[in-house]
Amino acid sequence: MTKSTLLSILLSGAATGLVAQTKLSGKIFDKDGHPIKGATASLLHLADSSLIMQADAAKDGSFLLHTPKNGNYLIRYSSIGYTTVHSRAYQLAGAEHSALPIFLQPVEHLMETVHVVGKQASVRQYADKMVVDVEGSVLAEGNNVLELLEKTPGLVSDGKGNFSIQGRAGANVRINGRDMYVSGEQLASILRGLQASEVSKLELISNPSAREDAAGTAGIINIVTKRNAKAGFGGDAFIRAGQGRQFYGGLGGGLHYKVNGLDMYLQGNKSFDRSNSHNLTERSFFNQGNLTSFQRQHERKKLDDASFHSVRAGAKYEFSDGGVLDGSVHWMTGNYKPYASIEMDTWDYPANIQTAQAISNNRFDESFKNWTFNINYINKYEGEDHFLKFNFDFAPHGNDYNNRFETDQFNLQTNTQSSTGRTNIQDLSNTTYSGRLDYSKPLTDSSKIELGWKGTYFFINNDVINTLLDNGKWIQDNATSNRFQYTQHIEALYAIYSGKYKRIEYQAGLRGEYTFINANQVTLDKKNDQRYFDLFPSGSLLYHLNEKNTLRTSFSSRIERPGDHDINVFRIYEDAYSYNEGNPDLKPEKSYITEIGHGYRNKLFTTVGISYGRDMINWIIRQGDKVGENLSKPENIGRYMNYSASVMYNQTLRSWWTASHYVNAFYNNYSGEIGNVNLDSKGSSWTANSRHTLQFKYGFRSEIAFYYRSGITTGPSRTDKRYGIDVAAEKKMFGDRGMIKLTANGLLRNANPQLVSEYGDLKVFYADFPDNRKVLLSLSYRFGD
């Protein structure tokens, strides 16, 4: 097998996620017999027209496709400015086939401003996941990945690095299939530093197989970054500038070189952000059901400086014997320097008398640095489904915090004034080592077995120094300063058997994970060890009712282990009145997810699901040590039920107008006991996304997206609705090498997302007024091959 052929196979496999057995080649020409470089050949399953894979034509018009298994297929040929046509049916079975040469005709009957374009739907449903196209989206420009995820169909984000899939909290976030091993604010920092322009697609896997880690009670969000697919030497450069309440922007570019089995790339960008926002918090404190005091807190925040840098580099070499060696490194760094001023008024009840007023000035200086090193090798044996893969990851990560809170307090009853101050300095580092082996072997023409092992070692060191202002001097607060170390070691084995019988495709898997956790409160000289073993079964069925309809069902069991922030008992301050503490007694939460779905002609998909969870970990807001303070602390909630239903519809309204619609309705029910307080929190919710793509003449394209999130119940909290409309347009220039884009995010949006939380003697109302209406202009240029 030649290197070029192997390269084509690998590229095809990357597009479909499958390793091919049967090859289908052909050539695409225009009506005069000239090759059409870049024309797309899409392989469709004859039964339901589902997309199997696609390939772009080379300079001579040639393309090569690979089928995942024997069967009946057809080819869809498309190219901008030409009519889209379909081939005759091909019956493919374990050999190399040649398609008849195709001659595309230019579009003759164009409307005044538009022409026909073949394009995949922006949201696609597969048997095991939903895929959201980011690379082909005009609207993605100018968003960071955290903002991108907040508007993704089927996802709900709290803005702090926590995500839900179809209403189920606890999604595990990965980049290119690799765990981040950070959560909460650390993860949010990384996602803010990663630009949507670096992302190819998002994969939402609500029911992962036994091949994947069991972490993530709601499933997996996999962020797939772009990678060069062109031969030869080339690159790209971009610059962007935007305006919200403040100016923001970025620049970057990349280089690639691909020849004779060697593929190298280098990509980097810098972005910076400025913003103003404000929020309102109202706290009602009760005693045996009677209101005793009330607080209204108004915070104004100004982000004077936020800068991010990202550099990705990698190389891949394809050996003549079929082996592939691939290595990459990804470096990210970011720095935030927001300032906040808080005005807080306090009233005593039942007298309804204002007793105090406080003014705080808070300064934050927070930074992160994240590295990810990866090397993997695949060795192929006879037959493309027979292979051995090795993968190793090394990921050091660091966060530094230097925050200062200064408060002037006024007692309105005694007409006196006092001043307090606090600093919070953290040095947080975590390092991850991970290795895995995956082996696949066909047993028959229609079945195979997969076996694998993964070992993960994760270590955290967190040094926290808090100081207090005492009579004009800063002294260390020994009650809250501490050093905390956390170690997590997981060994996993899995086995999967998959096959096909007549119209049924099936898969059954079992994963076993042994977990060792050591939490070391160095300051207290106290250690806590946990060791346990869990089994995680999974399975799926896909039934082809007929050429147009399919049924699918899947089941999986998941786990969410308490992280270092969850169990560190020492106090971390968010501002002068709000702080959080960990809970060393937390147990891991477990969930069980079942889904049933129907697909019609790769256009209409419906899914219903039910999820049961126990010992769910949820951060509960409660009254702090003093009246007027609030404490956040994680607790295990006894029981959780989620019922969900979703509908996705890919629609072609006109030859120049395509749309994807997604609606998800779900019902969450949390019940149990936290301390001496009974929890019975339930509520219905629904979300909707509708994205429209309009393709016009002269390389002009536009997108419009509508999104809506109703109120969502999570533990004792319920968020209010969120909605918005985003609009974007792009125009190709310089022979399709240049691109200008204009994006308006939040053209219409609600200005103050709200949340209400009730637990015990504290009720909290929160309203946010973020900087979420922005306009951005970007320019990009591609050079070389």
Would you write up a description of this structure?
Mean pLDDT is 85; it is low at 1-20 and 108-118. The chain has 4 helices and 48 strands. The chain has a 30-stranded mixed β-sheet that branches. It has a 6-stranded mixed β-sheet with strand order 10-11-17-18-15-16, with no helix packed on it. By secondary structure, it is mainly beta. Strand 34 and strand 35 (578-580) form a beta hairpin. 37% of the residues are buried.
**Strand percentage, roughly?**
over 45%
Radius of gyration: 28 Å
Average pLDDT taken over every residue: 85
Q: How would a crystallographer describe the biggest sheet?
A: 30 strands, mixed
Q: Total number of helical segments? A: 4
Give start-end ranges of low-pLDDT stretches.
1-20, 108-118
Give me the count of strands: 48
Give a quick set of tags describing it.
785 residues; mainly beta; six-stranded mixed sheet; 67% strand; disordered N terminus
Write the layout of secondary structure elements.
Elements lengths: L2 H14 L5 E9 L9 E6 L5 E6 L5 E6 L3 E8 L6 E2 L3 E3 L3 E3 L3 E3 L18 E3 L4 E4 L11 H6 L4 E3 L5 E3 L2 E2 L2 E4 L2 E2 L4 H10 L5 E7 L14 E6 L6 E12 L3 E13 L2 E26 L2 E29 L5 E25 L4 E11 L2 E15 L6 E25 L4 E29 L2 E24 L2 E4 L5 E20 L2 E18 L4 E19 L4 E12 L3 H4 L4 E2 L4 E3 L8 E12 L3 E20 L6 E25 L2 E18 L2 E19 L4 E10 L3 E2 L2 E3 L2 E12 L4 E12 L4 E6 L2 E8 L4 E11 L1
Parallel strand pairs: 1-8, 1-9, 15-18, 35-38
Antiparallel strand pairs: 1-4, 2-3, 2-5, 5-6, 5-7, 10-11, 11-17, 12-13, 13-14, 15-16, 17-18, 19-20, 19-48, 20-21, 21-22, 21-47, 22-23, 23-24, 23-25, 24-26, 25-26, 26-27, 27-28, 28-29, 28-30, 30-31, 31-32, 32-33, 33-36, 34-35, 36-37, 37-38, 38-39, 39-40, 40-41, 41-44, 42-43, 43-46, 44-45, 45-48, ...
